[in-house]
Amino acid sequence: MSAPLLQARDLTKVFRLKSGLFAKASSQVAVDSVDLDLAKRERVGVVGESGSGKSTLGRLLLGLTPPTVGDVRFEGVPHTERKSRDWSKFRMQTSLVQQNPMSALNPQMTIGEQVAEAVWVHHVADRAGARDRAAAMLERVGLPTGMMGRFPHQMSGGQRQRVVIARALILDPKLVVFDEAVSALDVSVQAQVVSILRSLWQELDLAYVFITHDLRIVRHLVDRIAVMYLGRVVETGDIRSVYAWPRHPYTRALLASVPTMDPRVRNVEPPIQGELDFSTLRQGCAFRSRCPFAIERCVSETPALRQAGDQKVACHRAEELPREIVPQREMAQ
Amino acid sequence: MMSFILARTVRALVVLFLTVTFVFIVLRLSGDPAEQILSDVATPEALAAFRINWGLDKSILEQFLIYWSHAIRGDFGTSFADGREVFAVIAERVPKTLLVTVSAFVLSMLIGIPAGILAAVRRETASDKAVMAGAVLGYSVPNFLLGLALIFIFAVWLRVLPSSGSSTFKHAILPIATFALFNAAGVARFTRSTLIDVMGQPYIAAARADGVPEWDIILRHALPNAAIPMVTMLGFIAGGLLGGASLIEPVFGWPGLGSGFVRATSSGDLNVVQAMIILFTAFMVTINLIVDILYAVLNPKIRLQSNER
Predict the structure, then answer these.
(1) Number of neighbours of residue A64 by Cβ within 10 angstroms
(2) For position A167, which CATH number holds?
(3) What is the C-alpha separation between A220 and A243, in angstroms, rounded?
C-alpha cells in the first residue's frame, strides 16, 4: 500500500449546546477519538444511524469544521498548518457531495454555472474554458450539454444528483466525501448513480469516504468499512470480512436488519431496542444499553478497538458471539 | 411576463374598487359629518341645510354613484372644512410626504441592509451584538416616541435642529431620521436572520467545500437567494410608509398627507378622507404590484413558468 493520502488521528469533535440566554451550556460529543487512514484510490464506507457522528466526521476530514482534539493530514500536511493558499489547493483536490441534491444546488444559478464555478474560481481556466469543461463533465455523468442552462428545479432528483457529482469531480479531486449521497433518491435512481460512481472511480485517480446508513448500497461501492456508534468507530475492516463475519453486536444488528427478498429467511439475531442513549457515553461501552449481549464488564470498562478475526472491533465479547446471523448468509454468498 | 403583469394589474384595480366601496360605506355609517363639522350647538335647520348642500340627505347608494361619476372625471369634490378643491388640498401635501417617506425608505435600506449583512457574517461577535442591540432598541420603541426623543435631543437640548414646521430642509431632517431609524432597525434584523438562514443551506456548504472565497459566497450565492424574502419585507415597509406618516408627521407638525389625514378624519371631512384613502390604497396596491413583478424577476421558478406559458 502506498503512503496514506489522508490520515486522521484521535479526531474528536465536541459541540457546546446552549439552549437559552440563561441556560447552562452542555456539551455533546459528536465524534470521539476516531482514527482513519485512506490510501490513494482507496474507498472507505462509514456507516451508522443518524446521530452517530458520521456526517460530522466527513466535515472534519474536509476541514469544514475544526476538530476539538486531534488532527487530519492530507498528503502529509496537517489542516492546522494550512495557510489560505494551502487551503485553496486542498479545496481543489477535495470535494463534498451532500445528501439532498435539491438543497445542495443553488436555486438561483443554472447548473452550467454551478458545475463550472470551481474551475474559474481556482484559475484553472477562464470562464469560457470553465464552461467547456463543465459541458464535458456533465456529459460524463450522462447529462446532455443542452441542460447547462437549466435551473435545478427543472430537473429530476437523479439528474440533480448527477449535477452534484459532476460539480464535485470537475477538478479531478483526489478525495471526495460522499455524505449520504444516494440516500434521498429512489431505488432505481440509486442504482443509476451507484453505477456512475463505480465507472467514474475506474477512470479517475480518486479516493473517497462514503458516508451512509444504507448497508445495501455501501457494499457495492467501498473496499473498507468503519461502523460508527455515538461518535466512536466500533468495528472496522475489509468490507468482505466484516460482512462475512460481523463481530460487533451493533454491526450484527445493522446487517440483520437489512431486508432480503427471500421469504424463507428468518431473522434470528436478537433485535436492538430503544434509541441512541447519550447517557452511556462517559464510561463503559456506549452501546451497552441497547446491546442484547451486554454484561457487567460493559458498564465498568470501555472496550478499545482491537484485532478480532480479520477486522478491528471494540467489544469485550467479540470472540464469544456465534458467527451465524441469518439474513446475512444470503448477502455474502 | 406581460400577461403576468396584466393579470396582476387587473387584480390591483379590483382591490382598489372594493376598498373604496367599503370605506365609503363605513365612513357614512360611522357618524354624521354635519354634526362633526358644525358642532352640536348648530340648529336643526343649519344641519339640514348642510346635509342638502353636500348631498348627504340622499341614500348611500345614490351618494356612491354620484361620487364615482365625479371621481372618474377627476373631481373628488370640495373639502367640507374650507371649501377648497380636494384635489388641490391633497396635491400640495403629496410632495411633502414623498420627500420624507422616500428618503427615509432609501436611507433605511442603506443603513439596515449593510448592518444586517455585517451582523450575519460576523455572527456572535461584538459587531453582531452591537447591531442587534441597536436594532432591537430601534424596533421596540414606538416610532412617534422615537420622534419625541429626537426632538428632545436635537431641538430642545442641543438646539441644532427645528422641532416642527417645513420651511427649510433642516425641518425635514428629524422626521426623516425618525422614520429611517425605525425602519432600518427592522431591515437590519430581517436581513441578518434571512442571510443566516441562507448561509446554513447545503449549497453554501458545497460552495465552501469547492473553495469559493467567503465574500464571493456571500455576494454571488447567498445575497441573490436572500433577495426574495427581503423584497417581501421591504414591500411591507414601503406599504407601511403612509400609515407611519400619519403617526410621525403630526409629531413634527409636518404638513404632509399623514397629518392631513389625521385632521380630516377627526373633523369628519369626508371628501378629503375618501380621496386620501383612494390614494393610499392605490399606493399600497402599486407596491404589491412592484413586489410581485420583482419576485418574477428574482425567482427563476416564477420567471420561467410565465415564459413557458
Answers:
(1) 16
(2) 3.40.50.300
(3) 12
Examine the domain organization and report whether B292 and B217 are in the same domain.
no
Residues A217 and A252 both lie in one domain:
no
| pLDDT band, very low/low/confident/very high, at A261 (cuts 50, 70, 90) | low
Is this complex's ipTM strictly greater than 0.90? no
* Contact between B209 and A95 using a beta-carbon 8 Å cutoff: yes
Shortest CB distance from A96 goes to which of B206, B213, B304? B206
**Contact residues, chain B, for A133 at CB < 8 Å:** none
Number of domains composing chain B: 2
DSSP state of A172: -
Domain limits at A37? 4-222
| Tens-place pLDDT, residues A183-208 | 888 888 898 889 999 999 999 999 99
Give the pLDDT confidence score for residue B90 in this predicted structure: 93
Task: State pLDDT tens for residues B112-162.
Answer: 999 999 999 998 899 999 999 999 998 899 888 999 999 999 999 999 999
| Chosen from B136, B203, B301 to mutate, greatest number of chain A CBs within 10 A | B203
| B201 located within any domain | yes
* Domain count along chain A: 2
Distance CA A53, CA A46 (A): 10
Q: DSSP E strands: which ranges in A218-305?
A: 224-229, 232-238
Q: Quote the Cα angle for A33-A39-A41, to 5°.
A: 130
Residue B139 sits in a domain whose CATH number is: 1.10.3720.10
Scan residues 197-256 of B and list those with Cβ closer than 8 Å to A.
201-203, 205-213, 216, 221, 224-225
Q: What is the pTM of this model?
A: 0.83
